[in-house]
Amino acid sequence: MGHGKAIDGLTAGQLKELLAIYAKNWLAMDGVWFQSVEERFGMDEAMLHDANAWRRFTVVEARRIKAFLGLPEQAGLDGLERALALRFYANINRDEARWEDGALCYRTLECRVQQARLRKGMPLHPCKGVGLIEYSGFAAEIDRRIVTECVSCHPDVTDPSCNCAWRFTLE
Predict the structure, then answer these.
(1) Were 10 and a residue from 14, 32, 43, 64 both cysteine, which residue would form a disulfide, CB within 3.0 to 4.6 Å?
(2) Domain holding 141: CATH number?
(3) Residues in Cβ contact with 31 at an 8 Å cutoff, skipping those fewer than 6 apart
(4) Residue 5 is assigned to a structural domain of this protein
(5) pTM check: above 0.85
């Protein structure tokens, strides 16, 4: 069997399982490089590089998902909801999206990054700054009119029932 052909004979269930494995592998790689920089140069340096990586990656991820879904240039909050559901994180984190007063509210209920850091006895990842870059960049790629607001994210936790919460509105 040639390279790239190994998946041809897999069932839908096996493909879903493989997708979850790929998502976990991607997240592990993200964590491994981050922790390497964190251990050698400290959290501030690791966060600087994390922000730079997410600034670029989130646009690539959003653009590809937008094309996959065939979303229009201004896909609105409905398009964002559909796109968020297909992010790599959606395969491995427990999350929810709900509508409140015309806004799309997205919450990560269980975050594998934070769970892994807690298991290793590490402090929680101070992800709010990078999260703002990640979520606002993703949303803007789906529709430039979308405004992103952080509702709760470490270290500024206002909702202890989730790891992070974001609110999206249309300008």
Answers:
(1) 14
(2) 3.30.1380
(3) 113, 116
(4) no
(5) yes
